[in-house]
Specification:
Layout lengths: L7 E2 L12 E7 L2 E7 L5 H17 L5 E7 L4 H11 L6 E10 L1 H6 L4 E5 L3 E4 L5 E2 L3 H26 L3 H7 L4 E4 H6 L5 E3 L8 H9 L16 H14 L8 H46 L8 H10 L1 H10 L26 H7 L1 H10 L1 H12 L4
Helix pairs in contact: 4-5, 9-10, 10-11, 12-13, 13-14
């Protein structure tokens, strides 16, 4: 909307319900973080301070920008001036939208490289509007200015969306509202954050309706932002994060982000450690099996069985494998697996097999697993 210009009168009988304009600028994680909220007006009162903050960040080498916009619009001239200031950041510019981005606020958003909306964001464009008075020459001059502004806005939307200026003019003959998905489909925004719902209070809904926009969609309050509840939550966060009692909201958010980054790093390191441990255990098991197979303590057919046992109980299974007989010269073999002639083996224990016929014990592990496990458990006091 055009406002505060000679011979331009913005008539809005609901001015008293406009949400106060707020704009802030600070550095976080080597980026400029700017928040724009409320009805864009009163720029003259804050312009110098805001420009100084931006110039200070730019002088320190900060080039990237993250901007949050939750605004019903306001003065075209003031929105243009804000956009001009934001152009001082020459790096990557990302805009995140709250529940509403309308009118002049959308012009600011178009100056960003990427625009991300919440699931319930409402996005509205319309032609710049004004009530003009004065003589014929004054009206003609102001009308030319209004047309220039309209052309500038249409060009900005066309550049952002890829739509032609004619297509833009067809869209905004009246207030043109889009929900987040519609705005994305028409490329006014680049992404919808499916996990984020922007806060919208009943008072804010009333303020939007009071502006007199046409075809306003049905808006639903998403949060009861009771100031007392906010204070309690802020105090709780300050306590949990061990911050100073005077910490700002931005400092709290920065600390939360830092903790998230640390948690993500810790999770990544834990995954690496788990992978290394698994690889180390696998190498250990392979070494035991290779040694046992090379010394003929186990056969290739038994390898899979012992691999599972080593994975379940490495120490006990390794001890068992190491107790198995190794290949010796045939001339030294006095017991070929038949045992003492006529000897009753029905009462032999695991130790008996180890002492008297270890080759029979190895054969039992391969051919009679149930019996072998029973003897093993009786001897070691645990499952093999």
């Amino acid at each position: 909307m055009l406002e505060n210009q000679p011979n331009f009168v913005l008539r809005n009988e609901h001015n008293q319900v406009k949400e106060k304009f707020q704009i802030s600028c600070e550095a976080q994680n080597n980026k400029a973080v700017i928040r724009i909220e409320g009805y864009i007006s009163g720029w003259d009162n804050i312009a110098q301070r805001f420009k100084s903050s931006v110039d200070d960040l730019v002088s320190k080498g900060i080039v990237d920008l993250e901007i949050y916009i939750n605004s019903q619009g306001g003065s075209v001239f003031e929105a243009n001036e804000i956009a001009n200031v934001l152009n001082k950041f020459t790096g990557n510019k990302i805009a995140t939208l709250g529940a509403l981005c309308a009118s002049a606020a959308t012009y600011i958003a178009t100056k960003c490289d990427k625009i991300i909306a919440a699931t319930n964001t409402q996005y509205m464009i319309h032609k710049p509007m004004a009530v003009v008075d004065g003589n014929a020459d004054q009206i003609e001059a102001r009308l030319k200015l209004l047309r220039n502004l309209q052309a500038d806005y249409a060009a900005a939307y066309s550049k952002k969306t890829g739509l032609s200026v004619k297509e833009i003019n067809d869209l905004w003959k009246e207030d043109f509202w889009m929900n987040a998905q519609e705005a994305k489909d028409k490329k006014f925004i680049d992404e919808v954050d499916g996990e984020t719902t922007a806060a919208l209070t009943p008072d804010q809904i009333q303020e939007i309706k009071a502006l007199g926009y046409k075809h306003i969609p049905e808006l639903t309050a998403t949060a009861n932002l009771n100031p007392q509840n906010n204070t309690i939550m802020k105090d709780l966060l300050i306590t949990l994060l061990a911050l100073s009692a005077t910490s700002s909201e931005a400092q709290i958010v920065a600390q939360v982000d830092a903790l998230k980054a640390k948690a993500a790093k810790a999770e990544e390191l834990q995954k690496q450690l788990d992978t290394e441990r698994a690889a180390s255990k696998k190498a250990e098991i392979k070494a035991v099996l290779d040694a046992a197979e090379n010394s003929k303590q186990i056969t290739a057919a038994q390898r899979t069985y012992y691999e599972k046992q080593l994975a379940a109980d490495f120490d006990a299974t390794k001890a068992h494998i190491e107790s198995l007989p190794k290949v010796v010269a045939l001339s030294t073999v006095t017991n070929t697996g038949t045992g003492t002639t006529g000897e009753d083996r029905s009462k032999w224990t695991y130790a008996d097999y180890q002492d008297k016929d270890p080759m029979a014990l190895a054969k039992m592990a391969d051919e009679d697993e149930a019996k072998f496990k029973a003897l093993f458990k009786a001897h070691y006091g645990k499952e093999c």
